[in-house]
């Protein structure tokens, strides 16, 4: 009984520590809900004053407009993007959709606010909105593995008793 409690405590502490590792998912919350946007950064990029420069960040940037255009930094040969998480977040993105001659501008200036605006010839292509970004930690897969292992051990011990 004491041994299984010790195992559960060790698994719990290991899971708690692992939960602080991994990536961060940022999600846009606009005041008019014109755009859906998100991106991820690595743990190293979440440290104070580190520039966002990973392929995870570049490949995860995704913004959807009212006309259904999906802007991605990975689709643009040389996207104009820059970011740093101080905190606070400081961000600039200018992305284009070459087939429709549309572009989107995302900015976060500490102390001045955050906005997304689109310039497009499509019917809903001239919208902009203010809003804010939230983020959440996405634990590494090892966290899920530890939780699963702990649950299996606990269920196994419960069935034997």
Task: Describe the SSE topology.
Layout: H1 2-18, E1 23-30, E2 36-41, E3 50-51, H2 55-60, E4 62-64, E5 70-72, E6 80-85, E7 89-97, E8 102-109, E9 113-119, E10 128-138, H3 141-160
Antiparallel strand pairs: 1-2, 1-10, 2-4, 3-6, 4-5, 6-7, 7-8, 8-9, 9-10
Helix pairs in contact: 1-3
Overall number of structural domains? 2
Dominant shape: elongated
Strand order of the largest sheet: 3-6-7-8-9-10-1-2-4-5
Structural class: alpha+beta
Walk me through what this model shows.
- Helices cover 27% and strands 39% of the residues.
- It is an alpha+beta fold and 161 residues long.
- It has two domains: 1-21 and 139-161; 22-138, no CATH class.
- The longest helix has 20 residues, at 141-160.
- The chain is elongated and about 70 Å long.
């Amino acid at each position: 009984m004491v041994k299984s409690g010790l195992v559960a405590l060790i698994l719990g502490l290991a899971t708690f520590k692992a939960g602080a590792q991994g990536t961060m998912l940022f999600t846009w919350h606009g005041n008019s809900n014109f755009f859906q946007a998100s991106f991820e950064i690595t743990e190293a990029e979440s440290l104070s004053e580190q520039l966002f420069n990973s392929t995870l960040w570049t490949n995860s940037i995704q913004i959807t407009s009212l006309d259904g255009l999906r802007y991605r930094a990975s689709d643009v040969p040389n996207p104009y993007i820059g970011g740093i998480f101080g905190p606070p977040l400081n961000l600039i993105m200018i992305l284009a959709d070459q087939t429709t001659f549309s572009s989107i501008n995302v900015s976060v200036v500490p102390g001045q606010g955050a906005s997304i605006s689109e310039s497009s010839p499509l019917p809903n292509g001239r919208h902009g909105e203010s809003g804010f970004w939230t983020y959440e930690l996405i634990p590494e897969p090892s966290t899920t593995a530890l939780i699963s292992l702990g649950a299996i051990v606990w269920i196994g011990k419960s069935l034997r008793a």
